Amino acid sequence: MKVRTIALNTFGSFLRNKVIILFCSLFVCIVLLMMSPLLAFKSMTNAANAQQMQGFLLNEIASVMSTVSGFGSLLAAWAAADSVAGEMKSGTILAVMARPLHRWQFLAGKYLGTLLLMAVYVVAMLGVTFLLAWLGGQHFQTSLWTLLAYPMVRYAVWAAISLLLVTVLHPVLVIGAIAVLATLVQVFGSAMSHIPHWIRLPVHLVLPLTSLLSEQRFLTITKASLRTFPWTNHVIALAYGLNYAFVCFLLAVAVFQRRSLSRD
Amino acid sequence: MAAPAIEFSSVTKTYRRRFGGDRIPALSQVSFEVARGEVCAFLGPNGAGKTTSMSVLMGFTYADEGESRVFGYPPGDVRAKERIGFVPENFAFYRYLTAETLMQFHLRLSGRKVTAPEALIAELIAKVKLDGYKGLKVGKYSRGMVQRLGIAQALVGNPELLILDEPTSGLDPAGRKEVRDLILSLKAEGKSIFLSSHILSEVEQVCDRVIIIDRGRLVRSGALQEMLAEGNRVEIIVDQLPESLAQAARELGATLEPEAGRVRLSIEASKKRVLAETLWAGGSDILSLTPLKSSLEDTFLKLVGGGTP
Asked: Which domains are seen in chain B, by residue range?
């Protein structure tokens, strides 16, 4: 009940947060900008260049989806960091924590509030995906739940990492650290086979393998995921993500338990 | 025997800078108790450690040494916080909420079960005279209104102990009187109140006990009446004072202040009779004899050497 109260209040504050409103407006602008070449390609398509245009369209859709998805990770990290840091900065945390509330309940409320925001984002992202597929004249052959579950778990991981970092760092530094971490994930993800085993193991343990949680892995608009991916793969991948997020959340609670609460 | 509302035993707290390792002592071996049903003022100049002490009590920050308890529970324990209403200094709020929604939020967090929450919230809002602002976002409130809302939210869980950090800051004289009356009515209901304030004349009107700290150390703790009575002196005005009588008065510990056509003498109340009889027997005519009661401000200034309370 108390966690839900904090979560709903956090979600309400996100809807009024200027940075997040700006963030979402930017998201809409980028999607719209990226859609204009898509529409241009579509209008130029004729019988002679149909196959070539099809390739353009699919590339364009893939890049829009990847941008939107990456944007979501950043939004999840920022929202989680700001939800805690904002309360510390303004001092509202003092009146809240004066209530019969455990510190973990406060953090859990903040985390759930962030996930609520990301759920709205994922639904919007799904809408954009459907819109693009429709514009590209393609059909979805993958099941809907994967398009909801995978990005949600991925964002849950980034939000939990951010929550852990914000218990010790300024939110701007948190976003910097998240950007560095995301770059490392990309670098190690693409060059993992060239890295010696003794480095590979700790990297696997510490860095989140968000590429494993990417719906891009199995989602191409023309292919079905369930044919190529057995359900056990989905379960393992999602369980990995949830476990990673849970560990980060527990670490955040442990650090937050010992820190002083004051107006920053 | 029931545990006191607040126990502070040899509490020490030192702040450390994150980089550089400087150590700033905030509290040093501070010990005191606040009994149940008592209204206790916590005084000290700026930077004396009042807010740090309150933060330790609320479990916001941890003491390096010593022990503190609220109703027998360690600070930050949910069972203790269920019985506390807290108003932080410069109460901060969610600017996008109205007073009603903010109170609902705090009521839910307090865990208090009430059959008619709207009626309770309306009653508390009316109690702090904010009932004419229905629907107005808290972000539009004046500082005084926010402070009053802070007091209302502290009462929402029906606490046994109120911890008020500067509850009248930002309020005009009328608002201060309302808060004072509210504290007196809460005292009449048997609630324990622990408050810090810079307005010592108000403290004198509502408090039973006073705790004074300075530079992180406890300098005085005791009943307000005792503290005020200790400084009791008597002023005697005589028409003239020969040197022999002046000498005798000085030997009794009196201070002399000659004025045009009369002399003003000040002496501890316990010696007033001896001095008066000496003066009378020596031929001085006593024009007046007036008790001089010291104020809390006098006591405070004497103890902390002129720091702003």
From this structure: 232-292 (3.30.70.980)
